[in-house]
Amino acid sequence: MSQVELLSPAGTLEKLKIAIDFGADAVYGGVSHFSLRIRSGKEFSFEEFEEGIAYAHARGKKVYATINGFPFNSQLNLLKKHILKMAELKPDAFIVATPGVLKLCHELAPNMPLHLSTQANVMNVLDAKVYYDMGATRIITAREISLRDLVEIKKELPELELEVFVHGSMCFAYSGRCLISTLQSGRVPNRGSCANDCRFPYEMYAANPETGTLFRLEEDEGVGTYIMNSKDLNLASHVKEILDTGAVDSIKIEGRTKTSYYAAVTAKAYRMAIDDYYNGVNDVEKYQYELQSLQNRGYTDAYLISRPFEKHDTQSLDFTMQLGTHQVSGQVDERGTHFLCKYKTLPHDELELVAPLDAKIEMVDNEIGTIYEREGRVYMKLKKLIAQNKKVWDEVHSGNLNPITLPIKLPPYTFLRIPAHPDMGTYPKV
């Protein structure tokens, strides 16, 4: 079996480049039409998506185009045109969600590999074989599937590639098939415009239909308010168990609507975990250090390792989002010579540098600042905040759009971060 693929989200051209630079073997994204992230997908034009494909291919990486929406009859002619136009861009596969779209793609783009979306809810050998016989070359299995069932599918269909989610937002509904957003705001999740209504706080009421009585149920503080809010998936501590099965061809990170920093850190953390696995190493603390720096809803290892009825910690009842251990304070530009401030930055602040794994950063001490290493991590302190226009600032904030000069050229899209909490580094194990 060849080495497992690391598949990262690409919501924009910049995020595509960042994910690839930070370790992804492949990325997935799409132009707005018929993508389940249509609201974020609008940030990709056809021209930008074509540029992203060229960027990936020049580096030996792959791009999978999402055409995984659920079309209405009135959209079918537009869908056919979209399939043909996307095929002209020469991505490495289409991701589709329904049997009809799968068949249509096979007819219009017969040489295009077809990946079946997790929205198809494949949980067993029977369903996997049906889609395989229809032309699917890979199945992105349901999030509710177990490792044992993955092994059984691979045993029965060894030529069928299997892809599993290992990180990102979880939906309380079965494989994301939810209509709550449609009911409350008219935004249809399975056509790409989910309003994330499951993340909202709700009050509970009891009604007696015979008397017309309605009263609010009092709740203990912190219990039951976010009743549909799932924790985020985090399987970095279980990469060895997953790869030991030999059944998984690609591990996938959710998050096309997430930040550029998220794209970088998740790609880097899982790249480390995969590379370590093939080198006989398993340093869970190292991977979690990076992933815990991200904003999250609390983490869970969900259902791949444990059965659903064995899990009682997948719900985040008392909050919708929490800070990670770190705050992003800056992002280096594509040239590597300046950074844009993302938070308050002062001279002599200690800023940790988050760069791609293979990056070579020179230790320097000059009139602009110092870059140094401590305990295996690289840090920077700026003596002066000098903008590209030569203006010197006493401090800069996230609203300041002036690029700030770096002491030395850094890898493009390197992130600068600072601890977000005094007790940074103490976090729950996943």
TrEMBL record:
**Entry keyword Zinc:** no
Select a single GO molecular function from the record's annotations and give it.
peptidase activity
Q: What GO biological process term is on the record, naming one?
A: proteolysis
Q: Does the keyword Cell cycle apply?
A: no
State the UniProt keywords alphabetically: Hydrolase, Protease
A Pfam family recorded for this sequence: Peptidase_U32
- Which superkingdom does the taxonomy of this entry point to? Bacteria
Family the UniProt entry places it in: Belongs to the peptidase U32 family.
Name of protein: Peptidase U32
